[in-house]
Amino acid sequence: MPDIPAASHSFVRRFGAIAAAIAASALTPLPAIAQSLVIDHVTVVDTRSGKLARDRAVVIEDRHIVRIVRGGSVKGAARTVDATGKFVVPGYLDMHAHPLTASARDASLTLMTSYGVTGYRQMGGDPQLLAERKAGTLQLPAHASKLLATPGLVLAGPFANDPTAAAAQVREQKAQGADFIKVVDLGPAAFFAVLDASRAVGLPVAGHQPPSVDVREAVKRGMHAVEHLGPHAALFEDCSTDELTLRKAYAETPKGGQIKFDLPASALRTLTANPVLLIPESGFQLLQRAIDTYDEGKCRALAKTFVAAGSWQTPTLIRLRAMEFGADPAFRDDPRLRYVPAEDRQIWEETAKRFETKLTPANRATLAQLWQRQLRLVKLLDEAGVPMMAGSDFGGGWLIPGVSLHQEFDLLAEAGLSPLRILQMTTLNGARFLGREKMMGTVEAGKQADLVLLDADPLASAANLHKIDAVVLDGELLDRAALDALAKSAEIS
Known about the structure:
alpha/beta, four-stranded parallel sheet, eight-stranded mixed sheet, 20 helices, 15 strands, 493 residues, globular
């Protein structure tokens, strides 16, 4: 078992009996057991401290890790896998994704599993989804990545300037069984009405930060998670020396268009393929002004506000890059688009052509500058200790299920985050955010048996997160051949 760092002493006090039993068994051979899976001679990666416990046997029964002992000390298991030279980590969590509204839902969910994604936070729901989940009638395929949390209807469009209706929708979603409230594109009055109503019913709020609202006030009032670094100018406005002027201008500037999230799925996929195309020319000018007046000292002060409030960030860098470089051949020519339905590929290609024709060279230059600022902002937030999670926003243009989370790992590394931090963002931090650290986020006795077995040390390089040898989902081992078969079954063309 990995050594327990000082920061985890409270965990040990709460679960002392379990910890003591594990420690005692680490050096003592155990009696033969039956109907179990043993991953033997593996290196266990401690996602809290980054320490490595080499030559361990991870014993799995009834969908849970029941003990971790010395390698080679367990006899009589139903199945034993020799994992010499391999590393085991918790299953990856995509903490911002939309697979349940994907046009190829079942294929998307199994493809995510093939890429080691054992769980996800669904970022857009509806009353039917909530009702089916509550009734236990939500039909999902075998070996599907697990739904961890979902909101009801996204609060946008019709609620943007109607605080009474927005607050009423919060109460309705609470009754429907939503896990959180998702906000997008709300005016200040409606936005704060949602925060107040959500706090009253005990639901967290996550989503987009309106540029017309001071984000410091938002997190103090209960904005639990900001997605996509805003997106666009929202956080950079608060880092600007011209902050008040920019906020006033955003409040007075007509929007290029609002997305109504109660549209039919195909229409919604078209509108959300690349929201950059909804930015009016005046919006690009304000965005450039926010970039030109950026002050790092203000941004570091903003990061301290997030830390003090316990407010989270899900950067979704791959989504930002796909929007801001929407015609990049690296996206358009990706051979893994074979996993994407033809209808979606057509929408994305048409959107890329609009990107090429609608945006001026100045617009594109602004977006390129914004991208570099976003990379530096992620590093700044990490250095300040702002809690962050890995998410792909699969559902948007050029984003492929499972694949896009791995692209996120690479972009987080490009931003300068350490391999341990990236691993934490896709494992431990998601468990903490959901309040499920007792059952998820680390490889320890008592935790759910959702694991990824890697061919190389993920602490040496984040690129090693791609080197998946096997996945354990609900205690079932899916070896490389099984994962390849899942991926093959998800191919559309």
